[in-house]
């Protein structure tokens, strides 16, 4: 299981992360950030694989990816 966080104040809503997300789990928020942009947000945490393509493509370095470690058997 994985999730991303978007630093709302850094994101300028360019949509690059949305275009490159293979699972299409990112969308633009309906709320403006302090700079007047609609930032990206995660819409379906259960589908996020933690591939980190969104974070790699983000020109504003506004996305962090968190992955849950698997339990060792």
Features:
73 residues; alpha+beta; Alpha-Beta Plaits; two-stranded antiparallel ribbon; two-stranded antiparallel sheet; 4 strands; 14% helix; elongated
Summarize the structure in words.
This protein has 73 residues and is an alpha+beta fold. The chain has one domain (2-63): Alpha-Beta Plaits (2-Layer Sandwich), CATH 3.30.70.20. Helix content is 14%, strand content 22%. It contains 2 helices and 4 strands, in the order E-H-E-E-H-E. A two-stranded antiparallel ribbon has the order 1-4. The radius of gyration is 12 Å and the shape is elongated.
Query: What fold name goes in the CATH topology slot?
Result: Alpha-Beta Plaits
Low-confidence stretches: none
The shape is elongated
Largest sheet: 2 strands, antiparallel
List the helices and strands and how they pair.
Layout: E1 2-6, H1 16-20, E2 26-28, E3 40-42, H2 53-57, E4 63-67
Compose a concise summary of this entry.
14% of the residues lie in helices and 22% in strands. The chain is of the alpha+beta class. It has one domain: Alpha-Beta Plaits (2-Layer Sandwich).
